Amino acid sequence: MSQTSREQVENVLRGLIDPHLNQDPLSAGCVQDIRIDQNSVEVDVRLGYAADQFKTGWAQMLQMQLEQLDGVSDAKVTVDWAVPAQAGMAGPDVLSQVKNVIAVASGKGGVGKSTTAANLALALAREGAKVGVLDADIYGPSQGIMFGVAPGTRPGVKDEKFFVPVEAMGVKVMSMAFLTDDETPMVWRGPMASGALLQMLTQTAWGELDYLVVDMPPGTGDIQLTLSQKAAVAGALIVTTPQDIALLDAKKGIEMFRKVNIPVLGVVENMAMHVCSSCGHIEHIFGEGGGGRLADNYEVDLLASLPLSMDIRKQCDGGKPTANADPESQIAMIYQQLARTVGARLSIAAHAGTVMPEIQIG
């Protein structure tokens, strides 16, 4: 029996597509080593995105395919992951250990942007990543409630000049809600709100993070521009609902990020349909297919489509978002897939060595 060749092993690996990278592991640069000893084959794979919930199944799939090769009696595939830092991630010193900054944005309020940001962060953490959340919605901060942080909680202080973010559910969280009373409205002009964001961004001791998820306020104003100027944002998610008015505003969000050279990773469509809890009838209350059309028009991907669900609302209002409250549910699985796909998109950019451009607005 002739020994299996490296070429045969590589041909098998090229025939399997990573669903998050949309590439085979060889083309994606994930294969670290191939060892062939008589009838045994060992392959080491390293993914560029957090994938604790995926790596075992992926290793088994690759192993099964290799064991079907003629002459192979034993195959072993090891899959691990390491999140790379984006090239050119210059910014404030406190962000020097933050590998990726992800902006979660929407053109208008009420489309589930904060819910998406919270569940994305928790899903990334469940995949094993070190994750932080910056609640940049100065006028309407909600991440404290969503992460179940008790009212009146204040961040710690380090060296008399840095905030220490509140830790909840394995995620580091910083929000204006931790610095003010619940009943105190932020009656501030734009420059004051931008200054508050800048202070939270640059005076929080984030430490080492794979991903910092920024829950943006709705719209395309001062705060969005401040973030794009002061932090090297690796990519943005646009959140919308299918209704025409939300899609119109979401288009403005995509155009804004393109003008400041921030890659749009894709679109998340919330409230895509309602499933009757009694009879199972599906209704597209806010319209049908709007998120997909928006993605097609701007040549980006529709990364997730989520139903109008009472469970999502109850769980977030109760301080335990779906990705944490019911991690094995179908909706939580959508968030896990979203988290891995977002991480994979960022890893492709890092692998390509894309340097973030300097932003100049004026």
How would you characterize the overall build of this protein?
- The structure is a single chain.
- The model is unreliable at 355-362 (pLDDT under 50).
- Helix content is 33%, strand content 20%.
- It folds into 2 domains: 6-81, 2-Layer Sandwich (GMP Synthetase, Chain A, domain 3), CATH 3.30.300.130; 93-351, P-loop containing nucleotide triphosphate hydrolases (Rossmann fold), CATH 3.40.50.
- The protein is built from 11 helices and 15 strands.
- With 362 residues, it is of the alpha/beta class.
- The protein has an 8-stranded mixed sheet, sandwiched between helices. It has a 3-stranded mixed sheet with strand order 1-2-3, with helices on one face.
- The radius of gyration is 22 Å and the shape is globular.
How much strand content do the residues show?
15-25%
Order of helices and strands: HEEHEEHEHEEEEHEHEHEEEHEHHH
Number of strands: 15
For the record, the CATH architecture of the largest domain stands as 3-Layer(aba) Sandwich
Number of domains: 2
The biggest sheet, with number of strands, parallel, antiparallel or mixed sense and barrel status, is: 8 strands, mixed
What is the fold-level CATH name, i.e. the topology of the largest domain? Answer: Rossmann fold
Tell me the name of the CATH class of the largest domain: Alpha Beta
The CATH superfamily name of the largest domain is: P-loop containing nucleotide triphosphate hydrolases
Percentage of residues in helical conformation: 25-40%
Distance between the termini: 70 Å
Strand order of the largest sheet: 8-9-5-10-4-11-12-15
Broad shape: globular
Backbone structural class: alpha/beta
Please, what is the average pLDDT? Answer: 85
* Spatial extent as radius of gyration: 22 Å
Poorly predicted runs are: 355-362
Helix segment tally: 11
